[in-house]
């Protein structure tokens, strides 16, 4: 049993890490909160003044704000659907012993190591380009008109790119869960006459529930901050068709040089992200108990 002296020593040794973590988190948030109440434009930094709640009102009433919220929801849900369903299917596939299984698994997870701007450039110039992309060549081969993906389906195109990046992560987590499934249960169910679908829905899927929850929680946190793929491919357009909340904040700060408005948008994004986190923990977090 730890004595009072050892407990005090443990608290003392933990204190520097806790203080550093608090400074790491609190200082940027406090500075963002401070700038959100200022009229601070990088083109004229000398005329900084107190703005009160104006930046929040300006950001909230921006016509692009509701479009950005909607696009953010569609982007997150679209990527989650593709990665969770696709991850389950691929995990089931590569869990079976096949020739070259190790190489196949490496190839499956390799897109996760490609940086987002590089992945966006690959898809933009080599796969989805309407003149010389792979999809355009396939369309021409079948006598069809090539699709200008980023002009006609900008948000869907970005969902595909992001899902391609995150599918290996979901596959890896789900494959790990699948490999811990008790084989004797599956054999017993098979001997009792359970079909493959019944074994999947009543044994495999419930066993993977915790892993699916982890995938949803972790991916949602990162997907709320997606912006590099949008910047490289569509710049948020056409119009606001592919502008999400993160890109809207970037546009206010780096294109309009409005630091006060961008800081207000950042605070709004933090509040909304916390609402999403609370909702997710209540909706799916019970699987982690």
From TrEMBL:
Residues 69-280 form the ABC transmembrane type-1 domain. The keyword Transmembrane helix applies. It is found in: Cell membrane. The keyword Signal does not apply. InterPro entries: MetI-like, MetI-like_sf. PROSITE patterns: ABC_TM1 (PS50928). The chain crosses the membrane at residues 12-37, 68-94, 106-123, 153-176, 208-228, 259-281. It is a multi-pass membrane protein. Its main location: membrane. Keywords: Cell membrane, Membrane, Transmembrane, Transmembrane helix, Transport. Gene3D superfamilies: MetI-like. It holds the Pfam family BPD_transp_1. Belongs to the binding-protein-dependent transport system permease family. This is Sugar ABC transporter permease. It comes from Paracoccus fistulariae.
């Amino acid at each position: 049993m730890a004595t009072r002296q050892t407990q005090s020593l443990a608290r003392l040794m933990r204190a520097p890490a806790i203080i550093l973590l608090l400074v790491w988190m609190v200082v940027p948030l406090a500075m963002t909160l401070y700038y959100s109440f200022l009229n601070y434009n990088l083109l004229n930094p000398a005329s900084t003044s107190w703005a009160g709640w104006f930046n929040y009102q300006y950001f909230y009433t921006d016509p692009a704000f509701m479009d950005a919220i909607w696009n953010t929801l569609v982007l997150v849900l679209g990527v989650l659907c593709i990665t969770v369903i696709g991850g389950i299917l691929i995990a089931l596939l590569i869990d079976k012993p096949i020739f070259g299984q190790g190489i196949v698994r490496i190839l499956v997870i390799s897109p996760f190591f490609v940086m987002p701007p590089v992945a966006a450039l690959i898809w933009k110039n080599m796969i989805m380009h309407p003149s010389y992309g792979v999809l355009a060549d396939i369309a021409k081969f079948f006598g069809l008109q090539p699709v200008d993906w980023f002009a006609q389906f900008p948000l869907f195109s970005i969902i595909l790119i992001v899902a391609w990046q995150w599918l290996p992560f979901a596959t890896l987590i789900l494959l790990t869960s699948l490999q811990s499934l008790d084989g004797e249960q599956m054999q017993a169910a098979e001997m009792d006459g359970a079909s493959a679908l019944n074994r999947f829905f009543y044994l495999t899927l419930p066993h993977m529930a915790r892993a699916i929850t982890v995938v949803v929680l972790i991916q949602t946190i990162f997907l709320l901050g997606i912006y590099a793929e949008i910047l490289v491919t569509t710049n948020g357009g056409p119009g606001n068709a592919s502008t999400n909340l993160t890109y809207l904040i970037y546009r206010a700060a780096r294109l309009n040089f409005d630091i006060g408005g961008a800081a207000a948008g950042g605070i709004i994004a933090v509040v909304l992200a916390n609402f999403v986190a609370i909702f997710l923990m209540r909706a799916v977090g019970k699987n982690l108990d």
